[in-house]
Each structure stands twice: as C-alpha cells, then as structure tokens.
Specification:
By secondary structure, the protein is of the alpha/beta class. It folds into 2 domains: about 160 residues, TPP-binding domain (Rossmann fold), CATH 3.40.50; about 100 residues, 2-Layer Sandwich (SIR2/SIRT2 'Small Domain'). It is built from 10 helices and 9 strands. The strands form 2 sheets. A 6-stranded parallel β-sheet has the order 3-2-1-7-8-9, sandwiched between helices. The protein starts with 7 loop residues before the first helix and ends in a 7-residue tail after the last helix.
Length: about 280
C-alpha cells in the first residue's frame, strides 16, 4: 500500500457490494469511555494472566477488589456511533455478523443480533470446578455485604481508570474479602478469556462461520496483537477475501490488509453506514 494514505473513500470502494464480516477490538469502545489496551493514547496496562489468577489468592483478592469497581463502569457504558452503525449495517444485510474481542456487550446493546463474544462477557461469573454460573450483578451484592463501604473508601466511580476487562486501577485491596463458589468451594472467575487462556472451540467455529459467509472482512479498533483475533484476518486473506482495517496506529495485520485506514472507528463506520444506506435499528 504505497502512495497517499488510504481514506474512508477507499474503504467504501473496497467494501461496496460485498457482504462483510466484522472483527472488533477495544478501539471501537473508546468513544464509550472504555480505554484501549494498546491504542496510542492508552495508559500502560499489564493484564492479569490466568496462571496468576488461579495460582495465587493474593492475585484473586486484588482482581476482585478492582473488578468490584470496574464492572460497574462497563455496565454503565453506552453504545457509541460505531456500535450503532454496525447494527444498522447488519440489519440492512451488509454485515454478516460481528466477532468481538471485547467483553463489554455494547454490540448487543446497540442492536446487533449476530455477535460472537470471542472473549466472553463481563456480566457473568463461572466456577472453575463445578461450572456453576451467576450474574456479575448477583455477585456484586454478595461482595458488597462482605465489604461494606469499600466503594466509598476507594473513591467515586468517575475518576478511576478501567481497562476493557473491567479491571479498575485501585491501590487499596489488602482488606478486600472475595468469595469462592458456595456450591463446591471452587474458584470463581469472570466469564472472560484471560491472557494465557484459549478461546472455547465452539466460539471459534461460530466466528469462522461468520467470516466464511462473507465476501470481505472489516477489522475495527483492534491492533490484532493476540492470535485469537489475528487468525481470522489470516483466514480471510488466505481465502482471497478483501481485508479492510480501521484502527488508530499500526496493527499486526497491516501487511494482509487491502486498505488500512488510520483513524477512529465511530466516524468511519458512521460514514460506511450512511453511504451503504443502512437503516437504524434503534
């Protein structure tokens, strides 16, 4: 891709008349107030690994203390123009489905119907031993009973920094009391894929189906650093499908992209929806 920097017009030209699968990452949700892991303006981030979470009670205590604040931030976030544009494009038959690396559920809230939550959801909790599941809201009530006043002591919700996995930056975690599974005593874990974990095979199969039913792949807001998302770009390119990427900053898939637009998702996707005649689902 030499010459002038690609524009939104280049995206339109590439995708026009093609049913498009969409892969999204944290960059699509920054306009909803959820920071990116790796964007150019993102704070340094060192997400907890599954080995740390399962292997050390201190890590679990720290995680649940931070998540006790952070999950509320995700629950209170609203879909932005990028999310609603994709929902409209799906409703109009342009988009075959959305594969998202995000756990914030904003695509579903925006009205997208076929969403593969590749890395799970912040809103559910699962026991690693017996498989019991519960809502994050239900667990929050129990944690609040164990830690009365914790939220007030750690400061108001507004100024805290929250990562895309609902991990908030909180320093006072030593006194926080967390819960194990009340059914079997096993470790409770947010129903999200941690760094070091594999995406469940059934989700991967569903995601490949979204790509295989399409005639092009659009990546929106992902650096494609982790293989869980990058594999779909490789798959599409190997099938000879056009690949378009919208992201602030470089991505791992730039060399496979027919068009790489360096910019924000909301504006670019809104233009795509308008130009392709998408009808709002809201």
């Amino acid at each position: 891709m030499g010459g002038a920097e690609p524009t939104v017009c280049d995206l339109l030209t590439l995708l026009a008349g093609r049913r498009t699968a969409v892969l999204t990452g944290a960059g699509i949700s920054t306009d909803s107030g959820i920071p990116d892991y790796r964007g150019p303006d993102s704070p340094p981030s060192n997400p907890m690994t599954i080995a740390q979470f399962t292997g050390d009670p201190v890590f679990r205590q720290r995680y649940w203390a931070r998540n006790h604040l952070g999950w509320r931030h995700l629950a209170g976030a609203a879909p932005n123009a990028g999310h609603t544009a994709l929902a409209a494009l799906e409703a109009s038959g342009v988009v075959t489905g959305v594969i998202t690396q995000n756990v914030d559920l904003l695509h579903t809230r925006a009205g997208s119907r076929r969403v593969i939550d590749l890395h799970g959801s912040y809103a559910a909790v699962v026991c690693l031993r017996c498989g019991t599941t519960m809502s994050r809201a239900s667990l929050a009530e129990q944690l609040e009973e164990l830690n009365p006043g914790f939220i007030g002591r750690t400061g108001p919700l507004g100024p805290i920094v929250v990562a895309p996995d609902a991990d908030a930056v909180v320093t006072d975690t030593a006194s926080f009391r967390y819960l194990d599974c009340r059914a079997c005593g096993g470790i409770l874990k947010p129903d999200i894929v941690y760094f070091g974990e594999s995406v469940p095979k059934d989700r991967v199969v569903q995601a490949y189906a979204v790509v295989d039913e399409a005639e092009a792949l659009l990546v929106a807001g992902s650096s494609l650093t982790v293989f869980s998302g990058y594999r779909f770009v490789r798959h599409a390119a190997a099938r000879g499908m056009p690949v378009a990427i919208v992201n602030r900053g470089p991505t791992r898939g730039d060399g496979l992209a027919d068009v790489k637009f360096d910019g924000g998702c909301s504006a670019a996707l809104t233009v795509l929806a308008a130009e392709f005649g998408a009808v709002s689902v809201r």
